[in-house]
Design goal:
six-stranded mixed β-sheet, three-stranded antiparallel β-sheet, single chain, alpha+beta, 4 helices
Amino acid sequence: MKKITGFRFLIIALIALSAPLLLMNCSSSKSTSGSLSKKDLDWYNSKVWLDGLQLTPHESINKEEFVRQYKKNKTYYDEAFNYLKTHNVAEMAPGTYQIDSNNVYMMIVESDPNEKDKVKWEAHKNFNDIQMILKGKAKMGVGKVASPDAVVVTSYDPKADIAFYNINGEKYYDGVPGTFYIFSPQEMHQPAFKIPGNDWVKKMVIKVRVPK
């Protein structure tokens, strides 16, 4: 066995001591939110991208995908958020409203929400959904399209930009006024099904094109 000289021992010791610091520095550059960097997470949490819009982004939003799309083409989301900031959408009549022809548009619907088993899981490829309950209360289901538990029950229709699924391992949240969801093409969703005691809802969906 070779002897370790004093100089070599010193080098090895310094490497051993500095290794934890290097690991800490590497980990600090990444957020606890998947592959999102700390800088991007801080930017997201600052809500500067809402430009003063007084609404709450839901915790389920895919932050990595939102940041990626926003960096690629912020215009579509900026137009959507500016529209929400400058219009009292809760008092607007049901219908379809063009925000940016072919890229951003809004649908407002009033309905008696269906029972959970009558609301299909859906996902899109060309558009994100910004969804929010404007009046009333309903449940929102969120699942991952890439989940091994996801099963396609109706193949993607490019004309309607929709596919339908079944999934296990999903999560459910309350949809309430003032809090919006964003469902990217990576998330399937089971939108606005009935919560007992809540027999009517008014809902908004803003379709935001996925940048190419």
